[in-house]
Fold each of these.
Amino acid sequence: CLWVRNLRLKRRLPGPFAWPVVGNALQLGQMPHITFSNLAKKYGDIYQIRLGCSDIVVLNGARVIRQALIEHSTEFAGRPNFVSFQLVSGGKSLTFTSYSKQWSIHRKIAQTTIRAFSTANSQTKKAFEHQIVAEVKELVGIFLKLSAQGQYFNPGHELTVAAANVICALCFGKRYGHDDPEFRALLHQVDQFGQTVGAGSLVDVMPWLQSFPNPVRSIFKSFKCLNEEFFEFVRSKVEEHRKTFDPKVIRDMSDAIIDAFNETDSVTELTKDYTEATVADLIGAGMDTVSTALHWILLLLAKHPDIQTKLQELIDKVVGRNRLPSVEDRPHLPYLDAFIYETMRFTSFVPVTIPHSTTTDVSINGLKIPKDTVVFINQWSVNHDPLKWKDPHIFNPSRFLDINDSLDRDITNNVMIFSAGKRRCIGDQIGKTQIFLFFAILLHQCSFEKCPDEDFSLNCSYGLTLKPLNYKITAKLRGELLKSG
Ligand code: HEM
């Protein structure tokens, strides 16, 4: 029974003393991933904490995390049955449902759809690239307007719109203006979403907080509303698609997903009701992550002007000033990829994955973890593991280059931001392509400078993604604005 299991868990795993009622919730602090890493120094890379009424196992360090997610991939592939997870897309989200045969087929449908509209063949690759280039060009124009007469601005909103437009264009064949009120409201919802599903959110581990007025209950209520509104936005777009759907002409990802779920799978019962949830999964996951990466990239470029100049010199040498950088230039611009990997490692902007759970009893490093245990996976600790990285707290893109200044794949493979194993992100390739193109074109066209009045710290807000707190930059045009791709 659960009680005996919990008792076994209590006996076998090390961890800090847990207070009655709240457990260790008050000790997590503003940045739980840093607290988790500090606790690992005392209790080892696998330990247990208690949040409210849930015992949670926290995994830290490259060796233990890869061992769990890769060698015991099925055992660690579950998701907890948190109340907040059940609210996402009417409980039909592939991201927030647990491991099962049905989930595995659902995930394959989403993977096939992403591939069909990005990397399937040279034509789709070009169409995808074209979409991104159009967005970056518009973004450059907006940045320059916001920088008129040397003004400083925060690029957050514009980056979110640009990244969201790429995934909306793929899903709905439609993009939105940067000032569109409907789109602004949608983006605000996605931003709030991450604050509730990030590891350490109290909504799920203290369900009794829902029974009387308190800040956690109001967060939970607004989480419910924002999920309903976001799902309604997606549902209305899919409905429009259904009206004009023709299986012979698949226009975008929504059409492809409608087509995939048109016939119910008799074994898994994946019905048409899963269509909207799948589209919502792709939009939700694709918006917040890519824009956050770009946000950090701009901050770090402005903070390190010497590195920015070196990157621009390299782009000018490889691409020249008469055309924009393209995906084909990527193998010749290893220092750009090194900068992207170092941004992902250094900021670890998805510090802890979406919470996992164990699908069976499992033993790791001689420690027994029972079935249905909630597991937090501290990606930040992998990227700052002193056994893997020299001076992990220093931002140094060159650590990814070998003696020939080529990208060292053995080292880039040590970065963990897309997780690993059965739950690994399915948008990693399209995410990386987007980040590379935005970054290369923005740098080719503009220089970014920080506001001299600001201390320009790396302060950020915690959630599923870490977002830089308000900082301001200005963009300066480098030479002539290029219109053609
Ligand atoms: C899951 C990172 C972009 C789709 C995840 C997870 C992480 C992640 C850490 C959780 C894995 C786990 O729980 O172990 C990122 C980063 C991105 C990115 C850093 C960009 C830089 C995207 C894009 C898409 C996408 C562009 C799709 C359009 C998904 C989906 C899942 C997921 C569907 C759920 C997988 C599952 O539960 O089986 N991502 N992601 N992601 N991501 Fe991404």
Amino acid sequence: RGKRAFIAGVADDQGYGWAIAKSLAAAGAEIIVGTWVPALNIFESSLRRGKFDESCVLPDGSLMEITKVYPMDAVYDSPDDVPEDVKSNKRYAGSSKWTVKELVESVKQDFGSIDILVHSLANGPEVSKPLLETSRNGYLAAISASSYSFVSLLKEFVSIMNPGGASISLTYIASERIIPGYGGGMSSAKAALESDTRVLAFEAGRKHKIRVNTISAGPLRSRAAKAIGFIEMMIDYSSANAPLQKELSAEEVGNAAAFLASPLASAITGAVVYVDNGLNAMGVGV
Ligand code: NAI
């Protein structure tokens, strides 16, 4: 049978999550997604109204189908963790079972198992502040939403992932090189995500025969990236300085993810794979 993929962090057709979903669908996978609760209504109504129809067209002309959309908030593991003000928030109260444990329980009930887990989400409330001006709460929130969210998702999903399965997350070179503007502890969060990729590759590999990799992606004009505020500059910088002087398309990252999730990559785990037109290899801009 075909593989089943759960992609966490899809709320429109502009980001890496959507592109990865498409590449996996093109390779024959069944697609289910997790959407951040506050973005769920807009995403589902846009899907229904056909706003994404053009973006659903796969290379062979067929259409990507999303079998199911689950509400999720990756900063909460179980209902006990949810503060009152969030519980009673109108947008949250309108959905149910969106903590990580409840989400995985629902996927288990609906589908039994998955083969591929994709983590394509990040959040840093103080991302526009330099690290030197970041509060403890802002820093911890960035780590919670952008790093521990992956640990938590893998921890819960691994029990329903078929052996030979794979997980993929998205990271950014600000984890290892200075990228002024990527603040609020987001650089720290990506460093944690990359380190966890290695440790989790060991633990999930030994115990469950699951591979764990992360893609260090170049700049893309996603909703999240536009919110940071320096995306145009990063895209221009990359076009000017990378070995490959072209704009990076989300599809190129999607295709790399589909490769990493496939048996073609059966010996690749614990890796940070650069999909960035080679920019990471440059020492100076020329
Ligand atoms: P995006 O806006 O398409 O995706 C981010 C998603 O995270 C959104 O759908 C948002 O609703 C969701 N999200 C935020 N907080 C959440 C939470 N608590 N629970 C569940 N979902 C939550 O933007 P993009 O850029 O495609 O981001 C996907 C991944 O790619 C992120 O990890 C990002 O750091 C990474 N990345 C992006 C780059 C870029 O230039 N756009 C470059 C390198 C990495």
Amino acid sequence: MFCYQCQETAGCSGCTMSGVCGKKPEVANLQDLLVYVTKGLSAVTTALRNDGKEVSENINHLVSVNLFTTITNANFDYYAISEKIRETIFVKEQLLGELSEDVKANLPEAALWTGTEDEFDAKAKTVGILSTENEDIRSLRELITYGLKGLAAYSKHANALIRDNEEVDAFLQKALADTLDDSLSVDDLVALTLEAGKYGVAGMALLDEANTAAYGNPEITQVNIGVRNNPGILISGHDLKDLEMLLEQTKGTGVDVYTHSEMLPAHYYPFFKKYDNFAGNYGNAWWKQKEEFASFNGPILMTTNCIVPPADSYKDRMFTTGACGYPGCKHIDSEYGQTKDFSEIIEMAKKCDAPTEIETGTITGGFAHEQVFALADTVVDAVKSGAIKKFVVMAGCDGRSKSRSYYSEFAQALPKDTVILTAGCAKYKYNKLDLGDIGGIPRVLDAGQCNDSYSLALIALKLKEVFELDDVNDLPIVYNISWYEQKAVIVLLALLYLGVKNIHLGPTLPAFLSPNVANVLVENFGIAGITTVEDDIKTLIG
Ligand code: FS2
Ligand code: SF4
């Protein structure tokens, strides 16, 4: 195996024996094959579109789910991945029949390869990351592929709410196919990387529209972090449609529902407030789940990443749905638009003890675009009066490396006239610290999940308009972003597309950036790593 797609990759260079995330070599290899056949399918769908033919939503969904399946900590299930490869080859074979022999002759090998299950392992070993020899081409192909994985994840959530964007899907598949094209130069791939950022904005806008149309605009909300006496179900991940189905099915059963990690922002949506059994948020970011899932006592539903390989003490209480999976954990699913049957989880919950309390109090969030726009006058006045000197975007991911304590320390060391804008599970490094407020505006404004970084971009663009500036970089906003997995890659590419410069990215720069590709990002966009809290405060705040 060779995998270097996430921030925790072994030795900051690549996992080769087994994943730091817990991914076994045979699963890592099979994920490479799933990416390969999905790229092959995408070359076929791109050829069909070029030929004026339509590609069905089902196929677009298959491409997105396949990519999502290979995101860090999403799916560890060899047989589920193998099944997706089989399905993808089957669909691709059917579509190939719609293309002329001339067009087929120009397709890449991935589009034409077919094999049975007994051939998957051997083939997988030949199609991994290292099969691209030139390190800059490899770096750009992987940077693009990881961005597309993030885009696919956001599309998949929108698809669950019956929202599709054919333009986004067509780009995603064309760009996947382009990563197989040996005729593309480094410059071509750099241009494709930036184009991916443009579609990253479109993908996040699609999901934002889907979420807010279904559940209303997030509003300032205090979320309870203690527990009640009823048995509970803990729901983690990002899929709000899954939460809606779970809340509907648990109504009146005596079972409470708690959010975990990236599901916390669901509390900010008006729609979910009508459920009396929507009890609060339990725990912290994904990487603490071993202790927190054990003390929760009830069943856990993982709707997406990030899964930590479960301990035996709660493995039989952990369920998966959607793109994620773990061997030995029951997977519950349905077709798009159909209801998932969570009755088994609810029945299990009834027999479990109530959660053990691990903390008490509340946390405040809900500062997505409409809520911040509603406060625009107060915010603008605070900037004009000098009460707020700077906004610091600290969106992104949390993770288990000790070096990430930097982000808690950085948040605490910021001058009192700065406001943190956050989104994603990165927030858990500082959302329980008492950082106070500035004239009633909390110093940590949480917009929501990682995809809600879109809100932060809209807020920046709104401030640019209000202050009549030509360049978003002239705003008093600085960026100190933490990353872990591939959704952060599409968020980063989206920010670059919007013209944001001088983003600091940590705790380490991606291992998949070759020195030359890293230089392109440094020279054109001023991307930098992090150093010490003291020095970075000086650099960013002055
Ligand atoms: Fe956090 Fe994991 Fe949100 Fe990532 S819970 S690192 O999936 O996308 O953020
Ligand atoms: Fe290693 Fe990250 Fe890949 Fe897991 S996802 S195998 S930790 S690089």
Amino acid sequence: TAPARDRLRIAIQKNGRLAEPARSLLTACGLSWRQSRDKLFCYGESLPVDLLLVRDDDIPGLIADGVCDFGIVGRNELDEQGAARRRIGLPDAYQALRGLNFGQCRLMLAVPEEWEWSGVEQLAGKRIATSYPAILADWLAARGVDAQVVELSGSVEIAPRLGTADLICDLVSSGATLAANQLKPVETLLESEAVLAGPVKTPDDARAGLMAMLLRRLDGVVKVRD
Ligand code: ATP
Ligand code: ZN
């Protein structure tokens, strides 16, 4: 188990869609940081709450390992890594504590525009490219559909044109990327937004009080912004 700490650590995305909104949300909660030179670690000034700036993919693992106490990450990423853990028999190590009302998107199945969509039975024997293999595999299994999951770490939307897959399962917000690749969305697997993620079990040291206080402030800020 991780050692006792008296400062809180929050992991947020260093660069990307959630980076700026996550930081400004925490600032609105009254947090401020001393600017550090490497900018991977920001030392908390107004409160003993430090920031870790990382790739979003690393956030669930940092919470699972007890390196960070909270993280701001898309529900899509948290659910994928949670589902992947469950598939190999690992216990749940983190949970979404609050929805944060930004970073909204959907994880969707999208098929070539010329397909006539009649329902999930149509997926039998098809190859589906995705960066969310665990969520997709669970979704297919729950519907009794036998399709092949092709895991790709990026550029999923060009897979059908390249012939590496028949259709895709990817994040969609405006739909413009799908349209540009002659794909159309047909099924929603997950409605996602940025969430505050935390451990399943609250640490029993000075961090517990800080975590409770931050949650209270966050609730106030998110409510006012609504
Ligand atoms: P990193 O370098 O941190 O790994 P990334 O490329 O994985 O970055 P971003 O593209 O910045 O991540 O997306 C971060 C999160 O923003 C996504 O996981 C998702 O929750 C959310 N998001 C909102 N809209 C979209 C969208 N249209 N496409 C992708 N992600 C979106
Ligand atoms: Zn990422």
